[in-house]
Write a structure and sequence with these properties.
Strand order of the largest sheet: 3-2-1-4-5-6-7
Order of helices and strands: EHEEHEHEHEHHEHH
CATH class: Alpha Beta
Shape: globular
Bound molecules: nicotinamide-adenine-dinucleotide
Structural class: alpha/beta
Largest sheet: 7 strands, parallel
Strand content: 5-15%
CATH architecture: 3-Layer(aba) Sandwich
Radius of gyration: 18 Å
Amino acid sequence: MAAHPQDSSRAPRRVLVTGAASGLGLEFVRWYAVRGHRVLATDRIAPDDVPAGLLPDGATYRLLDVTRDEDWAAAMEWVQQTWGGLDVLVNNAGVAAGGRLDLIDMDEWHRVLDINLLGVVRGCRSALPLLRVQRGGTIVNVASVAGLVHAPSMASYNVSKAGVVALSETLRHELAPHGIQVSVVCPYFVRTNIANSMRSADPAALAAARHYVDGARATPEVIVRRAMRAVEAGRFLVLTDAMGRVLSWGKRLAGPLYRRALRATT
Ligand SMILES: NC(=O)c1ccc[n+]([C@@H]2O[C@H](COP(=O)([O-])OP(=O)(O)OC[C@H]3O[C@@H](n4cnc5c(N)ncnc54)[C@H](O)[C@@H]3O)[C@@H](O)[C@H]2O)c1
């Protein structure tokens, strides 16, 4: 059976979103909840620390640190016991990272890859048994334009997000025969809290992250609306912004110009 676009008129879906206490994750929760789907919003924040009224009606909150296998096992147990399965997994949790290679130590590399890349691997591995038994479902992985075009002074973030793109493409083909759709969402900069999550020994990289994220025009509402339109249409690679399309097409079609532009940012 081939993966097929989701039919939004179907019975309410059962959705798990990671990194759901802020930014894009919170907006994915709202998008599904407002349409009557059942949502398990998860994040590494303790339930008592989630501000009252943050989550919409129809969403349940649960602690899930994407780096902890036991949290994933408990979340899958919860969806199975409570809902009898899972239809959509949104692997959204992530942190900002960056800095020149000589300034970033191995602890930081491990931290970034453990959250941004292996967090998504764990999510896919955890949900897969349920989705396969159902012979259907959707995995939405949130990567970034940085997973497709690789600006200087962002090696750890670029590598983590390129890994999410590669994982998604692999699973797209691997899971299509099981009726499971895989989409990878690649936003450009979005105004969220992500710059606060950045730890870097490179002050220039910290300042750049703040500048681009805090100054971004795109809001989570706009980006999630665009992303979900594409996901619901069964699209695999979802570029939510004009700048993302310019950069990724520019890399392919205008190599020398693209390389000059990137070098100018160092
Ligand atoms: N904001 C941007 O400019 C931008 C651009 C492209 C891609 N993205 C990606 O979008 C995703 C969401 O980021 P955002 O911009 O909404 O940031 P955000 O900081 O507003 O939200 C990220 C959420 O992830 C959670 N999180 C972090 N580590 C976690 C862990 N180990 N386990 C569970 N939850 C964890 C945080 O607590 C937070 O609630 C990330 O994967 C990010 O890389 C963001």
